[in-house]
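Recap from last week: sequence in, structure out.
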Amino acid sequence: MKNGSISLLFLRQKTCLKDTPRKIWKSVNCFVHTLQLAINDGFSVSSVDRVIATASRLVSHFHHSTVAAKALEKKQMQLKLKQHRLIQSCKTRWNSVHDMFERLAKQRWAITAVLIDCIFTKLSDARTIELRDDQ
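Predicted structure tokens:
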């Protein structure tokens, strides 16, 4: 190839690369939206929805009760866990469900220690927000 044909080929590739994102962007947005709709459909299955709702109630308990939140911090320190707040899921951010469960799993023992301590959690609240292995 001659230098002229190489530079022409390079110029064509550069032009194509510059135009490509605009052409693809619309289909990428469509794909992401379709993916989100599919994931939300999966979340609406009754057994999955029940587990997500129970986990959300558990997180809400720690977000709304300053006593439980302080107790969780104390238990995290005692168990030498990172002191992170629990993450609440959000319907419009499907990855937040994953983040919520990941945080619950990491903080499971501290959460359990707070829930079984009747000083911090009433028995009726503990039963309402309890997460069991079979859920």
